Amino acid sequence: MMMNWGMMNLGMILYMILVILILGLIIYGGLVLVMRLLNKKDSNNNSQDWDQDTSLQILKERFAKGDLTQSEFEQKYTYLKEKN
Question: Quick one: which of 32, 47, 60, 76 has the most CB atoms within 10 Å?
Fold first, then answer.
């Protein structure tokens, strides 16, 4: 009789540990999902800044090569600055 009570106690302890592990994994998964969504929004903002910097760099290079006149350069430069 004592042996059965001891086994039941061990089973309950293992069950509680299993439940705690499962709840921990669910919480961890939720946090990872939220963090990835937040990072994705931040990376979209960074890519827009990078695109504008790249556009301005290309514009400056074209002006330096002589592909654009000064008035064309100023017009396009103003447009790119206002776009942001």
Answer: 76
Distance CA 19, CA 50 (A): 46
The answer to whether 34 and 40 have CB atoms below 8 angstroms apart is no
Per-residue pLDDT of the chain (84 residues; tens, 9 = 90+): 455 555 567 778 889 999 999 999 999 999 999 999 888 766 655 555 556 678 888 999 999 999 989 999 999 999 888 876
Q: Which residues of 23-62 are buried (b: 16+ CB within 10 A; e: fewer)?
A: eeeeeeeeeeeeeeeeeeeeeeeeeeeeeeeebeeebeee
